[in-house]
Amino acid sequence: GDAHVGFVGEIAPAVGDAFGLDHRAAAFELNLDVVAALPATVASYHPVPTQPDAKRDLAFVVADRAAFADVERSLRGASSLIVDVELFDVYRGKGVEEGKKSLAVHLTLRAADRTLTSEEADAEVAKCVAVLGKEFGATMRA
User: Fold this and answer.
1) Is the pTM of this model over 0.70?
2) CATH of 54-140 given 3.30.70.380, 3.40.1260.10, 3.90.79.10, 2.40.10.270
3) What is the tens place of the pLDDT at every residue in 129-142?
4) Which of 9, 32, 48, 67 has its CA at a distance of 20 to 30 angstroms from the CA of residue 15?
């Protein structure tokens, strides 16, 4: 908001010299009444996972107008085991049709109660591919 909690600034070199300071120095003032009146934030705790991640990379072609936020939302909705979707490449050019782009993502999957088998992870990825095809007309890149 507009509350000023204090200020910080560099001490003028002449003042530092008068006090025998060999280096540049700074000073600050903090209004603790304002700080104390600020709303407390509640720290959230996420337990360390007890099961390992399964990671898969996907590269697929979608219409250039497709927003990654929408693609990410669809991927997360396709599988309850997806814990992270990270976009690592966007490509337009040779090998990708005009008006389209290639998106490459890292998927992280995890089950809370067991280690996912490779087959289970692949089945979840297949669900994602099907959803992307249905919702965005996506085709997979080799």
Assistant:
1) no
2) 3.30.70.380
3) 999 999 999 999 87
4) 32
The 3-state secondary structure of 32-75, one letter per residue: HHHHHHCCCCCCCCCCCCCCCCEEEEEEEEEECCCCHHHHHHHH
Rounded mean pLDDT, 101-125: 96
134, β-bridge pairs: none
> How far does CA 32 lie from the centroid of its chain?
34
How is residue 90 written in tokens?
């966007």
Question: 102: which strand partners?
Answer: 61, 91
From the CB of residue 68, how many other CB atoms can be counted at a distance below 10 Å?
15
DSSP 136: H
- With tokens 């600050």, the residue in question is 28
Q: Model confidence over 91-106: pLDDT tens digits?
A: 999 999 999 999 999 9
Residues in the chain: 142
Which of 12-21, 25-34, 55-64 is the most confident on average? 55-64
